[in-house]
Amino acid sequence: MNPKYVTDIKDVAGLTADEQISLTTVTRWFAFRANDYYLQLINWNDPDDPIRRLIIPDNGELLTWGALDPSSEERYTVAPGVQHKYRQTALMLVSDICGGFCRFCFRKRLFVDDESEVAFDLAEGLDYIRDHPEISNVLISGGDPLMLPTPKLEEILSALRTIDHIRIIRIGSKLPAYNPYRITGDPSLLRMIARYSTPDKRIYIMTHFNHPREITEVARTAIAQLQQSGAILMNQTPLIRGVNDNPVVLAELFNELSYAGISPYYVFQCRPSVGNKIYTVPIEEAYRIFEMARSHCSGLAKCARFVMSHASGKIEVAGKTAQEIVFRYNQAAKPDNIGRVLVYARNPRAYWFDDYTDCITSYRVSP
Predict the structure, then answer these.
(1) Measured between alpha carbons, how far is 250 from 212 in angstroms, rounded to an integer?
(2) Which pLDDT value is given to residue 111?
(3) How far apart are CA 297 and CA 247, in angstroms?
(4) Cβ(221)–Cβ(227) under 8 Å?
(5) Cα 146 to Cα 141: distance, rounded to the nearest angstrom
(6) Gap between the Cα atoms of 22 and 6, Å rounded
(7) For residue 261, what is the enclosing H or E element?
(8) DSSP secondary-structure letter at 45?
(9) Which of 66-80, 111-125, 265-279 has the highest mean pLDDT?
(10) What is the mean pLDDT of the chain?
(11) Contact predicate 355/347, CB 8 Å
């Protein structure tokens, strides 16, 4: 099967004519893209269907809120298409298209800004990575790297594999959810993964399953084929209002992933990007949901950490008391901050780390 892509909201048969007209206002600002495989997962009789919420625009996106680059990614751009925020990791933006446009996307700027941060000529970026031996792993992202033709993606993997100090290549992709036929229908992709995912230099596929209903039978087949090709799969998802902000649903997602051999990796606080207000849950409510979900999981299904991709680093929500909330830097732009613990007064209205302004205590954990 080769799903047909849909880019005009008026071509979505499940919407009424009035809905199609109303939502064109949203799509003038924030692009829409889906395919007929993914759209058929929607229960159109349920206006609150979570799959609908993931892919179909909502007029609430027009609320004035957020920033185009809430994590200040531009600050860490070191070459066209390459960011270097954390010492051991480089990020390569290699595609400016996705299998579907997530309504909660934190890189909307790639689709609304004329100045693309994606590089189609990666020579300068590869030279930068080659000249920085502290970089041991590269995350290939975008857009969605699996939207590239397999030969183009292989050019990137092949070039990275000529750099001895690159031990891990990560490919961030939602196509196992949006269009698993991209994987099951392309044996050359699987052969390529097998070629470059070696016992001492693995390829990781960072999947983006946001709701358990995305894990269909064909998605399970795609997952198994990637695993059989030598890739290691891990999942990350934001906590999204109306999608997985229910502990039972989030626990089901964790469990189903673990049953398929995918390790739940990160649950992200939804970034305060432009248009994202209606998809975002306050941090302390989100942490409660996250911990309640974990209580319904086995050890293998509860590996995820609840974090924010803040401009200063990967900040984990590590705990809370009746009066305080505890954060820890899992990773940091300034290496000295790694492991640092920050304790703040509780703020139930906080949506982002910057909303905590009255610091009670700040100290570093001993190694």
Answers:
(1) 8
(2) 63
(3) 11
(4) no
(5) 9
(6) 17
(7) none
(8) T
(9) 265-279
(10) 93
(11) yes
Structure-block tokens of residue 186:
């392309």
Kindly give, in sequence order, each residue whose CB lies less than 8 Å from that of residue 264, ignoring residues fewer than 6 positions away: 234, 235, 253, 254, 257, 258, 301, 302, 303, 304
Residues 200, 195: Cα–Cα separation, whole Å:
12
Residue 340, CA distances (Å) to 68, 256, 318, 329, 333 in order: 28, 33, 11, 5, 12
Residue 125: C-alpha distances to residues 74, 105, 198, 332 (Å): 15, 24, 24, 22
Separation of alpha carbons 116 and 129, rounded Å: 21
Tell me 59's DSSP state.
G
Secondary structure (3-state) at 70: coil
Which residues are within 8 A (CB) of 60 and not within 5 positions of it... i.e. 6 or more apart? 277, 278
The CB density around residue 2, as the number of other CB atoms within 10 Å, is 10
Q: What is the DSSP letter of 31?
A: -
Grouping H, G, I as helix, E, B as strand and the rest as coil, residue 236 is strand
- The helix/strand/coil state of 173 is strand
8 A C-beta contact, residue 251 and residue 259 = no
Q: In this predicted structure, which of 222-226, 287-291, 314-318, 359-363 has the lowest mean pLDDT?
A: 359-363
Provide the phi-psi class of 285: left if phi over 0, else alpha when psi is between -120 and 50, else beta.
alpha
47: which 2 tokens?
Answer: 């206006």
Query: Two tokens at 269?
Result: 């606080």
Please state the φ and ψ torsions of residue 358, each to the nearest 5 degrees: -105, 90
Look up residue 72 and give its two tokens. Answer: 């200040």
Give the pTM. 0.94
CA distance 35 to 55: 10
DSSP state of 365: P
Element (H or E) spanning 344, and its range?
Answer: strand 340-345
**H helices within 2-122, ranges in order?**
17-27, 36-39, 50-55, 109-112
What three-state secondary structure class fits 90? strand
Distance of alpha carbon 154 from alpha carbon 195, whole angstroms: 10
